[in-house]
Amino acid sequence: MKVGLLGGTFDPPHLGHLIIAEHVCEMMGLDEIWFIPSHVPPHKQESSISADDRLVMVEKAVESNPHFFVSSIELERKGKSYTLDTIKELDAQFPSYNFCFIIGGDMVDYLDRWYRIEELKRLVQFVGVGRGGSSNAADGVTMVDIPRIDISSSMIRERLSNKQSVRYLVADQVNDYIKENALYAPES
To answer: How far apart are CA 168 and CA 100, in angstroms?
Structure first.
């Protein structure tokens, strides 16, 4: 089984995440893509939305694709979400699976700064997706071109805080969940 892992805060998950997953799955000949919401990513601030809400939104975002699944492995572990720990745990749980880890082109340029990167590169193949702002050249990274979609979670949060629509930027089920739970509502 060949599985692509797509980690992130998914705060919120958006169509760009789904496009990345679909293209990498197809281009790399993968059987599945597992979305892995992080508890506390080492390179970002903690989310203002609960881990439970982010998990539910990712589940809703991927539910219509039979090749997409969600793993709560990092949310269950708590603390900082180091990719090395996740890969070691997944390798132990699924020894016959072949994992690759999907990163945005912007992260390719910073891969050498990741926690214990040389050890990590021995354990997992990295797949970088072509996005603006990256040299797209890093040792040990297979690059996959994807359509350029300028959607980001921060842009979506900003639109929501300004009471603007995010329809067609997130899956309908995610948009409904955000509205039903008043997530990202502007501060009063």
So the answer is: 29
